[in-house]
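Contributing new records

If you add data, match the layout below exactly. Sequence lines come first and carry their own label; structure lines follow with theirs. Keep one chain per record. Anything else will be rejected by the validation script.
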Amino acid sequence: MNRKVRPAVVADIDDVIRVCDQAWKGVWQGNRQMFIDRITTFPECGIVVGEIDGCIEGYVSVQLANDDTILRPTWDEATDSGHFTRTHNPYGEWLHGVGLAVTPKGCRAGMTESLISFLYDYMVANRKRGCRFMTRIPGYQRFQESMSPEEYVRSQRNERPLDPELRVLGNYGLVSIEPPIIFKDYVEGGGDPRSCGLSTMVEILNPNLEKNMVVTQGLIA
């Protein structure tokens, strides 16, 4: 099996849309111009694709941003409705992840790990603070009567996150920030009903930056 991860070009967009269709099954579908704008605005990582034997089976999409952009209350405001043209900051401290989709074949082949590893290498090489994503918390619906969203995000079972999505992301080094930040109706349409319309932020830090070492020591202490 020949695997390759690389920045996307405009000729890849039909395959990126196909990956979205397979991964999200119509729940979310980007449009062609949006993907073109991401590639044009941030050629290095606006869209990164993963190939298996020459066929695209996954992609991840990020912009560079600072906290003032990442912490905007909705996905549309934080990403220029997914286009990046007014929100990408070439001098931003963070990789801000705004999209990740992998086909069933890509999942079986470990493509998600390969895509996150590409971002990690870019983050370290370019001395960015880290990479941050917003994620749903689909297990929260079962616990909404017994704990707050912040308590739920912190909750663990067998030393792993209670939430299934946070467990999966944790496999790739993406963990909830502390203290947790909860967003209500972050995505258009209210988000995932199983998450009660809530999202939270996860991150992976650059271990080579002194400012991150201080943060990490504070969390351990």
